[in-house]
Amino acid sequence: MTVRRVADVTVGEKLGPKTIPVRRDTLRAYAAASGDDNPIHQNEDFARQVGLPDVIAHGMWTMGATGTLVTEWAGDPGRIVAYGTRFTNMVVVPRTGSEIVVAGEVTDMDPGAGTATVAVTATAGGRDVLGRCTAVVRLG
């Protein structure tokens, strides 16, 4: 991957969109890796019993998966120096799977620090699933 350089990045530059598939086997693998085996992420009967429409993706999985747009753009995951968001909606994952559509825009540059701030949007099922999502990228 090519690392983004300060001279090559401008405020207003667009990232994506990128479509990220979400399947139940992905959620099972994430649960095993993270230790988060809450049944709302794997058992549709349980999820419905507690008032959810179906199984939902883990919030931290969603955050990490959407971050791939910025890491690919940056050229190196180690270039992400800050990444934060608010979770605004669930990513519902029916048996057929779902998708998250992620896009971004460079909203600020600090040439002295060699960083760019990227605002990230993520939607699933036509609804925003992340709010105030931003990444700070150390440029080359």
Question: Could you please describe the fold and organization of this structure?
Answer:
With 140 residues, this protein is of the alpha+beta class. The chain has a domain at 6-22 and 59-138: Thiol Ester Dehydrase, Chain A. It contains 3 helices and 6 strands. Strands 1, 2, 3, 4, 5 and 6 form a 6-stranded antiparallel sheet that branches. Strand 3 and strand 4 form a beta hairpin. It is elongated, with a radius of gyration of 16 Å. The two termini are 12 Å apart. The model has no long low-confidence stretch (mean pLDDT 97).
Q: Features of this protein?
A:
140 residues, alpha+beta, Thiol Ester Dehydrase, Chain A, six-stranded antiparallel beta sheet, 3 helices
CATH superfamily of the domain at 6-22 and 59-138: Hotdog Thioesterase
Determine the number of helices (DSSP H or I, runs of at least 4 residues).
Answer: 3
Q: What's the shape?
A: elongated
**Biggest sheet: strands, sense, closure?**
6 strands, antiparallel
Q: According to CATH, what is the topology of the domain at 6-22 and 59-138?
A: Thiol Ester Dehydrase, Chain A
Query: What CATH architecture of the domain at 6-22 and 59-138 do you see?
Result: Roll
Number of strands: 6
Class computed from helices, strands and strand pairing: alpha+beta
Question: What's the CATH C level of the domain at 6-22 and 59-138?
Answer: Alpha Beta
Give the radius of gyration: 16 Å
**Which consecutive residue ranges, at least 5 long each, have pLDDT under 50?**
none
Q: What are the secondary-structure elements, in order, as H or E? A: EHHHEEEEE
